[in-house]
Design a protein that fits this description.
By secondary structure, the protein is α/β, with parallel strands linked by helices. It is built from ten helices and twelve strands.
Length: 371
């Protein structure tokens, strides 16, 4: 059975913690593959699996232990174009990192692709989700480090680190504004997005004895490390979190609903002492509105690791704002980052073969097509 494609797929997967992707429309695909159901279940025997990640023997064993003994494991680098092209003719599962080209989604037997990246928003397009290829990612591999990144931002503003460093360089005892500082203890943090990073941050904030508010897409039983839980499924907005919090942490993935979730309206609702931290995706915040809020003193500060355009342009006002901390979409990695990614892959290999819900499966709720 043939697949008719009206336009090429052009996908370049980068090894940075995000994916840069350009995707043309895909239409008229046949129903040759078994679809996952709404919970992400997709049962199937894995006959041929492609791995393009540079993994060591003990990492490979972690994956092969999850496969039938007769499964054919093909390892090749993205630069090995001929070998990759041959592999794509037969594989039903692909575990890929950077450098994989546009032919990936046209592989005739492919049923599941795992991208070794935390964010998949650049793949969350209707044409790809209209295919019967399951797409998963490595969200969660860096959650502890990202939670620490938010805490770094919070401590930097609470301690007025810039003023401390300025006084130190001048050999000056004491620093401007030190009488107005406050410990994180007993302050309120609002966490937008209670996925892997949000959960890791909530646990650490509660260990610091902060009041923890959180907003999540779906209903769950409230964990002990969260004081108040708001959910989209329950009809809750983020307004109460925005109004009450001393720190607002954006930990949500980017989709049509979270695009510019913090904008002019939300900044006006915040305390003028509030600090915003973003370790999710840059476009979750309206950057122009944020810059105006920082300039006007509507909010006290922002710690930003992600931006609407990356690298952050040299002419961005954010570079020059004393109440903004800019980090270059980089968090010190967790030990054995690739091993943590492969733990997710191994878990999904088992789920896939048993017909169980798969972790980090891209769904229609993740679609981002607004920018």
């Amino acid at each position: 059975m043939r697949i008719y494609i009206n336009s090429f797929i052009n996908i370049i997967v980068e090894e940075a913690p995000h994916i840069t992707t350009s995707i043309a429309m895909i239409t008229n695909l046949t129903n040759r593959y078994q679809r996952t159901d709404k919970e992400g279940r997709m049962a199937g025997k894995i006959k041929n699996i492609l791995i393009t990640l540079p993994i060591k023997d003990h990492h490979l064993k972690k994956l092969t232990d999850c496969l039938d003994p007769d499964a054919n494991v093909i390892q090749c680098r993205p630069s090995e174009k001929e070998a990759l092209a041959e592999a794509l003719k037969i594989v039903d599962v692909a575990i890929v990192g950077g450098g994989v080209g546009r032919d990936l989604f046209t592989a005739p037997n492919l049923k599941w692709i795992h991208f070794d990246a935390a964010g998949l928003d650049n793949l969350a397009k209707t044409p790809l989700l209209d295919t019967n290829i399951a797409i998963t990612g490595s969200a969660g591999r860096s959650a502890p480090a990202l939670a620490e990144h938010v805490i770094y931002f919070m401590l930097s503003f609470s301690y007025r680190s810039r003023a401390i460093f300025a006084s130190q360089s001048e050999k000056k005892w004491g620093y401007e504004g030190q009488e107005d500082t406050a410990a994180l203890f007993a302050q309120t943090i609002g966490i937008l997005g209670l996925g892997n990073t949000g959960v890791a941050l909530a646990k650490r904030a509660k260990a610091l004895e902060m009041t923890v508010l959180a907003h999540k897409r779906s209903n769950i039983e409230k964990p002990c490390y969260i004081d108040t839980l708001y959910t989209e499924e329950n009809g809750d907005s983020i307004d109460e979190i925005v109004e009450k919090s001393d720190f607002i942490a954006v930990c949500t993935p980017l989709n049509n609903k979270t695009y510019h979730m913090l904008g002019e309206r939300e900044f006006k609702m915040m305390k003028n002492t509030a600090v915003v931290a973003n370790v999710g995706r840059g476009a979750c915040i309206d950057e122009k509105a944020l810059i105006e809020a920082l300039r006007s003193g509507e909010i006290a500060g922002a710690g930003l690791d992600t931006f609407e355009k990356e690298p952050l342009p040299e002419d961005s006002p954010l570079w020059g704002l004393d109440n903004a901390i800019v980090t270059p979409h980089f968090t010190p990695p967790c030990p054995d980052k690739i091993g943590r990614s492969l733990d997710i892959v191994a878990e999904n290999l088992i789920h896939y073969q048993k017909g169980e819900p798969m972790r980090n499966l891209l769904t229609r709720a993740d679609i981002f097509e607004l920018a």
